[in-house]
């Protein structure tokens, strides 16, 4: 049965995964973080109490 012989298709399968993992993933990672993360201010703001006019 030819599908059990890994000779013809295993090299194509392995080379396509190597191309995928090296070239395509590096191109995709360039689009992952377009903006640098910005640190937020560490000071805590005091919340204002709500105004309930109907109470």
From TrEMBL:
Assigned keywords, A-Z: ATP synthesis, CF(0), Hydrogen ion transport, Ion transport, Membrane, Mitochondrion, Transmembrane, Transmembrane helix, Transport
Keyword field contains Transmembrane: yes
Topology of the protein relative to the lipid bilayer: Single-pass membrane protein
GO BP: proton motive force-driven ATP synthesis
Any Gene Ontology CC annotation: mitochondrial membrane
Primary site of residence: mitochondrion
InterPro entries: ATP8_metazoa, ATPase_protein_8
Record's subcellular location: Mitochondrion membrane
Source organism superkingdom: Eukaryota
Any Pfam family matching the protein: ATP-synt_8
Transmembrane segments: 6-24
Any GO MF annotation of the entry: proton transmembrane transporter activity
UniProt record similarity statement: Belongs to the ATPase protein 8 family.
PANTHER family referenced in this protein's UniProt entry, alphabetically: ATP SYNTHASE PROTEIN 8 (PTHR39937)
Name used for this protein in its record: ATP synthase complex subunit 8
UniProt organism field: Salamandra salamandra (European fire salamander)
């Amino acid at each position: 049965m030819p599908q059990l012989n890994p000779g013809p298709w295993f090299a194509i399968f392995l080379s396509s995964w190597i191309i995928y993992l090296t070239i395509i993933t590096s191109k995709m990672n360039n689009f992952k973080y377009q903006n640098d993360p910005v640190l937020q201010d560490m000071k805590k703001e005091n919340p204002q109490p709500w105004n309930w006019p109907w109470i």
